[in-house]
Automatic annotation (TrEMBL):
It comes from Hyphodiscus hymeniophilus. One of its GO terms (biological process) is homologous chromosome pairing at meiosis. Residues 107-157 form the Homologous-pairing protein 2 winged helix domain. This is Meiotic expression up-regulated 13. Keywords: DNA recombination, Meiosis, Nucleus. It comes from the Eukaryota. GO terms for molecular function: double-stranded DNA binding; recombinase activator activity.
Length: 313
């Protein structure tokens, strides 16, 4: 076998020394992958679109200005409706409530003093104004009552004492009343008479209570009793019933209706017992026969129709 021809690479160099490899001094460049742009969320796009739509609509919409006196519905109609709703009678017709005119000056003083004398108990300025139903305002009542209290026309009591400055502390509450007249007090003789009268009334009270109870029960019985018209109807019904019974009694007495004897009644009872037993035995026999026929495929309705039997008895 012929030897292989050497390749060019295998042939030694002219110098006869092997070729030396030099190291690479260049630095390897590393390229970083660029981050891809992240897609925007759909929600952001939707929000932007909605915002643009809303802005466009705001630009288009223009609120009309209300013009007074040109037939448009304004605040005047609402006030009129509120007035119509006020004060409605039982028949459904709207009526305006009469406005109470507030009084001042001597007229207000007379009204306040008259009210306090009639009630004969302490009141505050707010209570007086409220109980007079707005005839005297709260401010006027407070001012006039304090003036009357300082003059001595009315009794006055404050929750706080007067300061060194001669004024009451802020938030002090006042009550007012009519002063009691010393001449109105009763004498000892009058008081004794009053006590005797009170004792007599207390002693008679139990007797009156018993009488009231008796009269109340009597009244309840009278209310439960039938009226005259109801009694008349009851009497007429009883007369008709008595007439029918009288006719029947007359037939019995005349002999038109035959009365059964004791022997006949005993015979009827004996026959009833006999036929009751016969009925019971026949019913049992029929039941057995019906059951046997039903086993052969016939229905109960067909069997009773062929035999002419009606009902369970």
């Amino acid at each position: 076998m012929a030897p292989r021809a050497p390749k060019k690479e295998d042939t030694p160099s002219s110098t006869g020394t092997p070729e030396v490899l030099k190291p690479k001094t260049e630095k390897a460049k590393v390229e970083k992958a660029k981050a891809e742009p992240r897609p925007r969320a759909k929600s952001e796009k939707a929000n932007k679109e909605k915002g643009e739509k809303v802005e466009k609509e705001k630009e288009k919409v223009v609120k009309p200005k209300a013009v007074k006196g040109k037939g448009e519905k304004g605040d005047g109609e609402g006030k009129e409706k509120e007035k119509e709703k006020k004060a409605v009678k039982s028949d459904g017709k709207a009526v305006d409530k009469p406005k109470v005119k507030a009084v001042t000056g001597d007229e207000a003083v007379a009204l306040i003093v008259e009210y306090l004398k009639a009630q004969n108990r302490p009141f505050s300025a707010t209570e007086v104004s409220a109980n007079l139903h707005g005839k005297v305002t709260k401010t006027v009542a407070d001012k006039l009552l304090k003036e009357l209290g300082e003059k001595g026309t009315l009794g006055m009591k404050a929750t706080n004492k007067i300061n060194d400055d001669g004024e009451y502390a802020k938030g002090t509450q006042f009550v007012f009343w009519t002063p009691q007249n010393a001449s109105d007090t009763a004498t000892p003789e009058e008081l004794a008479t009053m006590e005797c009268t009170i004792a007599e009334l207390k002693a008679s009270n139990p007797i009156l209570q018993k009488e009231l109870k008796a009269q109340s029960s009597k009244l309840a019985m009278m209310k439960a009793a039938p009226t005259i018209a109801q009694l008349q109807d009851m009497v007429d019904a009883l007369r008709v019933e008595n007439a029918a019974k009288a006719n029947k009694l007359a037939e019995f007495k005349s002999g038109k209706v035959k009365m059964p004897s004791k022997e006949e009644m005993v015979a009827v009872e004996r026959a009833h017992r006999f036929w009751s037993r016969v009925k019971k035995a026949r019913k049992a026999a029929y039941g057995e026969l019906e059951y046997s026929l039903m086993e052969n495929g016939k229905s109960r309705e067909d069997i009773r129709e062929e035999c002419g039997v009606e009902g369970d008895d």
